Amino acid sequence: MRIERVRAVPAVSGFFFDDQRAITRGATRDGFTYEGDPVTPGFDRIREAGEALTVDLELSDGTVVSGDCAAVQYSGAGGRDPLFRAERYADVVEGPVADALRGREAAEFARNAAVVADLPPAESDGDRLHTAVRYGVSQALLAAAARARRTTRTDVLAAALDATPADRPVPVFGQSGDARRENAEKMLVKGVPVLPHGLFNSAGKVGEDGEGLVDYLDWLSTRAGELGPEGYSPRFHVDVYGTLGDVFGPPYDRAEVADYFADLRAAAAPYPLQVEGPMDAGGRAEQIHAMAELRDGLAAAGVGVDVVADEWCNTLADVRAFVDAGAADVVQVKTPDLGGVQRSGEAVRYCEGTDARAYLGGTCNETVTSARACAHVALATDAAQVLAKPGMGFDEGYMVVTNEMRRALARRGRDPPEVAADD
Prior knowledge:
Elements: E1 3-18, H1 20-24, E2 29-30, E3 33-34, E4 47-59, E5 64-70, H2 86-101, H3 109-117, H4 131-149, H5 153-161, E6 172-173, H6 182-190, E7 194-197, H7 203-206, H8 211-227, E8 235-239, H9 243-248, H10 255-268, E9 273-276, H11 284-301, E10 305-309, H12 316-324, E11 330-333, H13 335-338, H14 341-350, E12 357-360, H15 368-381, E13 385-387, H16 395-414
Parallel strand pairs: 6-13, 7-8, 8-9, 9-10, 10-11, 11-12, 12-13
Antiparallel strand pairs: 1-4, 2-3, 4-5
Helix pairs in contact: 3-4, 4-5, 5-15, 6-8, 8-10, 10-11, 12-14, 14-15, 15-16
């Protein structure tokens, strides 16, 4: 079965593009939007409607499979690729990408994905094709290979990565958006394994001395006991977008910082706690140093809070660098920033045998198509947790990712696939 045609269709994503730098610098909310001027190149406003680009592959049997090019909510920040514009990249997909893929065997996922990864960049993209393009095209190629091989996307990717797939759903991580109390309560009622993200992306939300985050975790722990199902034992995971670095500043192994994290731990008790992006040090080397310093300080003080790498941990090389330096207990594999889904799988696998766990993340600003593809990446690599996406309403993203994993596991259990070693 061959790839006959490649088509690009501009689409909408599940949330918005936000100028993270402008927000963390104190941009004022104006209803759902923000007042003021953007500071990150490419943005016309601080909050803009999200965009995606659907990639359709028409196969020689008449089947059409799809993937969605999507980029993170906070594009252009923390070393990420610039703001993604669907109209601009439609010609790239129907031009150079289509030329490279037309006539190729659909079953050869690894080879096809490698061809796309090696394509020269579009104008002003730097030294590589935009991550969003590689992301969406790889999803379509994965679906095409599964169709050609008559198996699941989980098994195609596991074969490509020489991985043993999970035999149970990967724990799903819910994200609350700014409705951090109402949506957290929804998660607790549904027994979500990891929650609530919290979106603590400004000093006003964290508190001048960090007291807002402590109060929130204390409330969350109490509500977990009140609302959670019997035997419920969730893991708390909050994202602070570097704001604790603004509260404390370096060095991060000093007693004052450890004492604050001990307060966070006490507020979250009895549930385990992991804190994502505690600071943004302004570059990969600086971030690795700061994260390792914090982790060492917490270990020396006996404070049981895990730190999660996000800022400046975007590519496969970045993930390797954070893991090798012992700079995080958990690394977020931010799927749109890795490019092809096979790269996300490689990043998860790199954590095996280390003391770092892999969180297969992404962004609220994706689509149902990309979220379903990522559910298969999570299963294929048996990640530690996977993000509920797209959107910030929680329920919809949780449904999409959970149900896709359950369907894949049911199919694999009912009809064990025979998948040859990948190309």
